[in-house]
Amino acid sequence: MGFKTKSWKTILITSAVTVSLSALTACGSSSSGGSAAADYPTKPIVVTAPSGAGGGWDKTARSLIKVLDETDLVEQTMTVENKPGGGGVVFLAEYVTKDKDDPYKLFVSSPPLLINNLKKEGNSPYGYKDVTPLAQLTRDYGAIAVAADSKYNDIQSLIDDIKADPTKVTLAGGSAPGSMDHLISILPAFNQGVDPKTIKYLSYDGGGEAIAALLGKNADAIGTDISSLGSYLKSGDIKILAVTSNERLGGDFTDVPTLKESGIDAEFTIWRGVLGPKNMTEEQVAFWDETLKSLSEHETWKKELEANAWESEYKNAADFTAFLEEQETVVQELLTALGMQK
What we know:
The radius of gyration is 20 Å and the shape is globular. The protein is 35% helix and 19% strand. The protein is of the alpha/beta class. Strands 1, 2, 3, 4, 5, 6, 7, 8, 9, 10 and 11 form an eleven-stranded mixed β-sheet that branches. It contains eleven helices and eleven strands. The N terminus is likely disordered. It has two domains: 197 residues, Bordetella uptake gene, domain 1 (D-Maltodextrin-Binding Protein, domain 2); 127 residues, 3-Layer(aba) Sandwich (D-Maltodextrin-Binding Protein, domain 2), CATH 3.40.190.10. InterPro entries: BUG, Bug_dom1.
Protein backbone atom coordinates (compact mmCIF):
# COMPACT_ATOMS: atom_id res chain seq x y z
CA MET A 1 0.00 0.00 0.00
CA GLY A 2 2.93 2.29 -0.64
CA PHE A 3 2.43 5.92 -1.54
CA LYS A 4 4.91 7.79 -3.69
CA THR A 5 4.60 11.54 -3.50
CA LYS A 6 5.78 12.26 -7.03
CA SER A 7 4.08 9.47 -8.96
CA TRP A 8 1.01 8.81 -6.87
CA LYS A 9 1.70 5.26 -7.94
CA THR A 10 -0.44 3.67 -5.34
CA ILE A 11 -3.02 5.38 -3.26
CA LEU A 12 -5.13 2.96 -1.36
CA ILE A 13 -7.85 4.84 0.36
CA THR A 14 -11.06 3.24 1.34
CA SER A 15 -14.53 4.42 1.91
CA ALA A 16 -16.22 3.51 5.06
CA VAL A 17 -19.86 2.74 5.67
CA THR A 18 -20.61 3.76 9.17
CA VAL A 19 -23.44 2.20 10.92
CA SER A 20 -24.39 2.93 14.50
CA LEU A 21 -26.64 0.33 15.98
CA SER A 22 -28.76 -0.31 18.97
CA ALA A 23 -27.45 -1.35 22.27
CA LEU A 24 -26.47 -4.90 22.07
CA THR A 25 -26.64 -7.08 25.04
CA ALA A 26 -24.49 -9.99 25.83
CA CYS A 27 -24.36 -12.40 22.98
CA GLY A 28 -22.95 -15.82 23.54
CA SER A 29 -22.24 -18.15 20.68
CA SER A 30 -24.02 -17.37 17.42
CA SER A 31 -26.31 -20.34 17.84
CA SER A 32 -27.00 -20.00 21.51
CA GLY A 33 -30.21 -17.96 21.09
CA GLY A 34 -29.73 -16.57 24.59
CA SER A 35 -32.30 -13.99 25.65
CA ALA A 36 -29.75 -11.17 25.87
CA ALA A 37 -28.57 -11.74 22.29
CA ALA A 38 -32.16 -12.15 21.10
CA ASP A 39 -33.12 -8.80 22.63
CA TYR A 40 -30.87 -6.80 20.33
CA PRO A 41 -31.95 -4.84 18.46
CA THR A 42 -35.38 -4.05 19.86
CA LYS A 43 -36.25 -0.86 17.97
CA PRO A 44 -35.74 0.75 14.55
CA ILE A 45 -32.22 1.56 13.37
CA VAL A 46 -31.17 4.69 11.50
CA VAL A 47 -28.27 4.57 9.06
CA THR A 48 -26.96 8.02 8.16
CA ALA A 49 -25.37 8.96 4.85
CA PRO A 50 -23.44 12.18 5.68
CA SER A 51 -24.26 13.68 2.27
CA GLY A 52 -27.13 14.46 -0.05
CA ALA A 53 -28.87 11.81 -2.13
CA GLY A 54 -27.23 10.22 -5.13
CA GLY A 55 -23.62 9.79 -4.07
CA GLY A 56 -21.57 6.81 -2.93
CA TRP A 57 -22.45 7.13 0.76
CA ASP A 58 -26.16 7.34 0.02
CA LYS A 59 -26.11 4.35 -2.32
CA THR A 60 -24.04 2.31 0.12
CA ALA A 61 -26.36 3.00 3.03
CA ARG A 62 -29.46 2.15 1.01
CA SER A 63 -27.93 -1.05 -0.36
CA LEU A 64 -26.87 -2.07 3.12
CA ILE A 65 -30.29 -1.74 4.73
CA LYS A 66 -32.01 -3.26 1.69
CA VAL A 67 -29.99 -6.47 1.87
CA LEU A 68 -30.04 -6.71 5.68
CA ASP A 69 -33.83 -6.56 5.43
CA GLU A 70 -34.20 -8.95 2.50
CA THR A 71 -31.97 -11.55 4.13
CA ASP A 72 -33.56 -11.16 7.59
CA LEU A 73 -30.11 -10.66 9.08
CA VAL A 74 -31.62 -7.72 10.98
CA GLU A 75 -35.30 -8.03 11.86
CA GLN A 76 -35.86 -4.46 13.02
CA THR A 77 -36.83 -1.68 10.61
CA MET A 78 -33.84 0.18 9.15
CA THR A 79 -34.04 3.58 7.47
CA VAL A 80 -31.55 5.91 5.76
CA GLU A 81 -31.15 9.53 6.81
CA ASN A 82 -29.22 12.07 4.73
CA LYS A 83 -27.22 14.71 6.61
CA PRO A 84 -25.14 16.76 4.15
CA GLY A 85 -22.60 19.39 5.12
CA GLY A 86 -18.86 19.82 4.74
CA GLY A 87 -18.23 16.41 3.22
CA GLY A 88 -19.27 14.66 6.43
CA VAL A 89 -17.70 17.14 8.87
CA VAL A 90 -21.00 18.60 10.08
CA PHE A 91 -22.57 15.21 10.66
CA LEU A 92 -19.58 13.71 12.46
CA ALA A 93 -19.36 16.58 14.96
CA GLU A 94 -22.99 16.08 15.93
CA TYR A 95 -22.70 12.31 15.97
CA VAL A 96 -19.61 12.18 18.18
CA THR A 97 -20.99 14.66 20.70
CA LYS A 98 -24.66 13.63 20.82
CA ASP A 99 -24.91 10.00 19.73
CA LYS A 100 -21.84 8.35 21.23
CA ASP A 101 -24.03 6.15 23.46
CA ASP A 102 -26.73 5.30 20.92
CA PRO A 103 -26.04 2.04 19.06
CA TYR A 104 -29.31 2.45 17.12
CA LYS A 105 -27.73 5.17 14.98
CA LEU A 106 -25.29 4.07 12.32
CA PHE A 107 -23.57 5.97 9.53
CA VAL A 108 -21.75 5.31 6.27
CA SER A 109 -18.46 6.92 5.36
CA SER A 110 -15.29 6.54 3.30
CA PRO A 111 -11.79 8.00 3.10
CA PRO A 112 -13.14 11.45 4.07
CA LEU A 113 -13.39 10.07 7.61
CA LEU A 114 -9.58 10.19 7.65
CA ILE A 115 -9.00 13.04 5.23
CA ASN A 116 -11.25 15.53 7.03
CA ASN A 117 -9.45 14.90 10.30
CA LEU A 118 -5.98 15.38 8.81
CA LYS A 119 -6.37 18.25 6.34
CA LYS A 120 -5.65 21.89 7.15
CA GLU A 121 -8.69 23.71 5.75
CA GLY A 122 -12.23 22.90 6.89
CA ASN A 123 -11.01 20.04 8.99
CA SER A 124 -12.83 17.97 11.56
CA PRO A 125 -11.47 17.55 15.09
CA TYR A 126 -12.92 14.04 15.00
CA GLY A 127 -11.77 10.90 13.21
CA TYR A 128 -12.05 7.11 13.27
CA LYS A 129 -10.82 6.94 16.87
CA ASP A 130 -13.93 8.83 17.98
CA VAL A 131 -16.28 6.15 16.64
CA THR A 132 -16.30 2.35 16.52
CA PRO A 133 -15.21 0.78 13.21
CA LEU A 134 -17.41 -2.27 12.64
CA ALA A 135 -16.54 -3.60 9.18
CA GLN A 136 -15.14 -2.73 5.81
CA LEU A 137 -17.54 -4.02 3.19
CA THR A 138 -16.56 -2.85 -0.28
CA ARG A 139 -13.93 -1.47 -2.57
CA ASP A 140 -14.68 1.09 -5.27
CA TYR A 141 -12.67 3.31 -7.59
CA GLY A 142 -12.52 6.95 -8.58
CA ALA A 143 -13.45 8.26 -12.02
CA ILE A 144 -13.28 11.46 -14.05
CA ALA A 145 -16.48 12.24 -15.97
CA VAL A 146 -17.69 14.97 -18.32
CA ALA A 147 -21.07 15.82 -19.86
CA ALA A 148 -22.03 13.80 -22.93
CA ASP A 149 -21.67 16.84 -25.19
CA SER A 150 -18.31 17.89 -23.74
CA LYS A 151 -15.44 18.56 -26.13
CA TYR A 152 -13.31 16.21 -24.05
CA ASN A 153 -13.22 12.62 -25.25
CA ASP A 154 -10.13 11.47 -23.36
CA ILE A 155 -8.40 12.33 -20.11
CA GLN A 156 -5.25 13.69 -21.77
CA SER A 157 -7.11 16.44 -23.62
CA LEU A 158 -8.60 17.59 -20.30
CA ILE A 159 -5.16 17.59 -18.66
CA ASP A 160 -3.66 19.51 -21.59
CA ASP A 161 -6.21 22.31 -21.13
CA ILE A 162 -5.54 22.42 -17.38
CA LYS A 163 -1.82 22.67 -18.09
CA ALA A 164 -2.39 25.47 -20.60
CA ASP A 165 -4.49 27.55 -18.18
CA PRO A 166 -5.79 26.03 -14.92
CA THR A 167 -8.12 29.00 -14.38
CA LYS A 168 -10.19 28.11 -17.46
CA VAL A 169 -11.06 24.54 -16.44
CA THR A 170 -13.42 23.90 -13.53
CA LEU A 171 -13.47 20.55 -11.77
CA ALA A 172 -16.13 19.60 -9.22
CA GLY A 173 -16.96 16.93 -6.69
CA GLY A 174 -19.45 15.99 -4.03
CA SER A 175 -17.23 16.85 -1.07
CA ALA A 176 -15.12 19.68 0.31
CA PRO A 177 -11.65 20.85 -0.82
CA GLY A 178 -8.98 18.45 0.37
CA SER A 179 -11.54 15.64 0.34
CA MET A 180 -11.75 12.37 -1.56
CA ASP A 181 -13.53 13.78 -4.62
CA HIS A 182 -11.05 16.65 -4.69
CA LEU A 183 -8.09 14.26 -4.61
CA ILE A 184 -9.63 12.13 -7.38
CA SER A 185 -10.28 15.26 -9.49
CA ILE A 186 -6.75 16.61 -9.33
CA LEU A 187 -4.91 13.28 -9.42
CA PRO A 188 -4.42 13.00 -13.22
CA ALA A 189 -3.14 16.56 -13.68
CA PHE A 190 -1.00 16.38 -10.53
CA ASN A 191 0.60 13.21 -11.87
CA GLN A 192 1.66 15.16 -14.95
CA GLY A 193 3.28 17.98 -13.03
CA VAL A 194 0.46 20.47 -12.50
CA ASP A 195 0.54 22.27 -9.14
CA PRO A 196 -2.67 21.02 -7.48
CA LYS A 197 -3.15 24.34 -5.71
CA THR A 198 -3.72 26.05 -9.09
CA ILE A 199 -6.56 23.73 -10.18
CA LYS A 200 -10.10 25.11 -9.85
CA TYR A 201 -12.35 22.85 -7.77
CA LEU A 202 -15.98 23.42 -6.78
CA SER A 203 -17.35 21.40 -3.87
CA TYR A 204 -20.95 20.25 -3.50
CA ASP A 205 -22.81 18.39 -0.76
CA GLY A 206 -23.02 15.00 -2.44
CA GLY A 207 -22.35 13.31 -5.74
CA GLY A 208 -25.86 14.01 -7.01
CA GLU A 209 -25.35 17.78 -6.69
CA ALA A 210 -21.94 17.56 -8.37
CA ILE A 211 -23.42 15.72 -11.35
CA ALA A 212 -26.22 18.29 -11.55
CA ALA A 213 -23.54 21.01 -11.70
CA LEU A 214 -21.78 19.13 -14.48
CA LEU A 215 -24.95 18.70 -16.53
CA GLY A 216 -25.90 22.32 -15.84
CA LYS A 217 -22.60 23.51 -17.37
CA ASN A 218 -21.26 24.81 -14.04
CA ALA A 219 -18.28 22.45 -14.21
CA ASP A 220 -16.16 21.00 -17.00
CA ALA A 221 -15.52 17.69 -15.29
CA ILE A 222 -16.13 15.92 -11.99
CA GLY A 223 -14.15 13.49 -9.90
CA THR A 224 -16.15 10.96 -7.91
CA ASP A 225 -16.61 7.24 -7.25
CA ILE A 226 -17.40 5.37 -10.45
CA SER A 227 -20.20 3.34 -8.88
CA SER A 228 -22.34 6.49 -8.57
CA LEU A 229 -22.07 7.18 -12.31
CA GLY A 230 -23.63 4.03 -13.78
CA SER A 231 -27.16 5.33 -14.27
CA TYR A 232 -25.93 8.58 -15.86
CA LEU A 233 -23.70 6.64 -18.24
CA LYS A 234 -26.60 4.36 -19.23
CA SER A 235 -28.89 7.33 -19.85
CA GLY A 236 -26.28 8.96 -22.09
CA ASP A 237 -25.90 12.07 -19.92
CA ILE A 238 -22.16 11.69 -19.34
CA LYS A 239 -18.90 10.31 -20.68
CA ILE A 240 -16.39 8.75 -18.28
CA LEU A 241 -12.87 9.63 -19.35
CA ALA A 242 -10.95 7.36 -16.98
CA VAL A 243 -11.21 5.09 -13.95
CA THR A 244 -8.53 4.91 -11.24
CA SER A 245 -8.36 1.11 -11.09
CA ASN A 246 -5.38 -0.98 -12.21
CA GLU A 247 -7.48 -2.90 -14.72
CA ARG A 248 -10.67 -2.18 -16.62
CA LEU A 249 -13.89 -2.85 -14.80
CA GLY A 250 -16.69 -5.02 -16.10
CA GLY A 251 -20.38 -4.48 -16.69
CA ASP A 252 -21.42 -0.98 -17.74
CA PHE A 253 -17.84 0.27 -17.41
CA THR A 254 -16.11 -2.16 -19.78
CA ASP A 255 -15.30 0.58 -22.28
CA VAL A 256 -13.91 3.04 -19.70
CA PRO A 257 -10.09 3.21 -19.93
CA THR A 258 -7.90 3.22 -16.84
CA LEU A 259 -5.57 6.11 -16.10
CA LYS A 260 -2.64 3.77 -16.75
CA GLU A 261 -3.91 3.05 -20.26
CA SER A 262 -3.72 6.79 -20.85
CA GLY A 263 -0.12 6.92 -19.68
CA ILE A 264 -0.92 8.18 -16.18
CA ASP A 265 0.70 5.91 -13.61
CA ALA A 266 -1.77 6.39 -10.76
CA GLU A 267 -4.34 4.41 -8.82
CA PHE A 268 -7.01 5.41 -6.30
CA THR A 269 -8.97 2.75 -4.47
CA ILE A 270 -11.94 3.69 -2.31
CA TRP A 271 -12.90 1.57 0.68
CA ARG A 272 -16.30 1.60 2.32
CA GLY A 273 -17.11 0.30 5.72
CA VAL A 274 -19.51 0.37 8.66
CA LEU A 275 -19.02 2.28 11.91
CA GLY A 276 -21.00 2.84 15.07
CA PRO A 277 -20.84 5.16 18.09
CA LYS A 278 -17.82 5.36 20.35
CA ASN A 279 -19.30 3.65 23.40
CA MET A 280 -20.42 0.36 21.93
CA THR A 281 -20.05 -2.71 24.10
CA GLU A 282 -17.96 -5.74 23.19
CA GLU A 283 -21.18 -7.68 22.79
CA GLN A 284 -22.59 -5.13 20.36
CA VAL A 285 -19.43 -5.21 18.28
CA ALA A 286 -19.54 -9.01 18.29
CA PHE A 287 -23.11 -8.88 17.00
CA TRP A 288 -22.07 -6.76 14.05
CA ASP A 289 -19.01 -8.90 13.40
CA GLU A 290 -21.31 -11.88 12.98
CA THR A 291 -24.09 -10.06 11.12
CA LEU A 292 -21.91 -8.18 8.65
CA LYS A 293 -19.72 -11.20 7.96
CA SER A 294 -22.89 -13.12 7.09
CA LEU A 295 -23.95 -10.21 4.89
CA SER A 296 -20.63 -10.23 3.03
CA GLU A 297 -21.04 -13.94 2.23
CA HIS A 298 -24.70 -13.81 1.17
CA GLU A 299 -25.62 -14.20 -2.50
CA THR A 300 -28.09 -11.31 -2.26
CA TRP A 301 -25.28 -8.98 -1.18
CA LYS A 302 -23.01 -10.25 -3.95
CA LYS A 303 -25.71 -9.41 -6.51
CA GLU A 304 -26.03 -5.93 -5.00
CA LEU A 305 -22.27 -5.43 -5.32
CA GLU A 306 -22.38 -6.46 -8.96
CA ALA A 307 -25.31 -4.13 -9.68
CA ASN A 308 -23.35 -1.19 -8.25
CA ALA A 309 -19.95 -2.13 -9.73
CA TRP A 310 -18.52 -2.54 -6.22
CA GLU A 311 -15.98 -5.16 -5.23
CA SER A 312 -16.30 -7.09 -2.00
CA GLU A 313 -13.60 -6.37 0.56
CA TYR A 314 -14.70 -7.54 4.00
CA LYS A 315 -12.74 -6.80 7.17
CA ASN A 316 -14.10 -7.42 10.65
CA ALA A 317 -14.04 -4.77 13.38
CA ALA A 318 -10.52 -5.52 14.60
CA ASP A 319 -8.99 -5.77 11.12
CA PHE A 320 -10.85 -2.70 9.92
CA THR A 321 -9.57 -0.65 12.87
CA ALA A 322 -5.99 -1.75 12.17
CA PHE A 323 -6.45 -0.92 8.49
CA LEU A 324 -7.67 2.60 9.29
CA GLU A 325 -4.60 3.15 11.44
CA GLU A 326 -2.41 2.26 8.46
CA GLN A 327 -4.46 4.41 6.10
CA GLU A 328 -4.10 7.40 8.39
CA THR A 329 -0.37 7.38 7.64
CA VAL A 330 -0.99 7.12 3.88
CA VAL A 331 -3.48 9.99 3.88
CA GLN A 332 -1.12 12.17 5.91
CA GLU A 333 1.62 11.65 3.30
CA LEU A 334 -0.82 12.43 0.49
CA LEU A 335 -2.06 15.67 2.04
CA THR A 336 1.52 16.71 2.83
CA ALA A 337 2.41 16.33 -0.86
CA LEU A 338 -0.46 18.70 -1.68
CA GLY A 339 0.44 21.18 1.06
CA MET A 340 -2.96 20.54 2.62
CA GLN A 341 -1.94 18.80 5.81
CA LYS A 342 -3.04 20.09 9.21
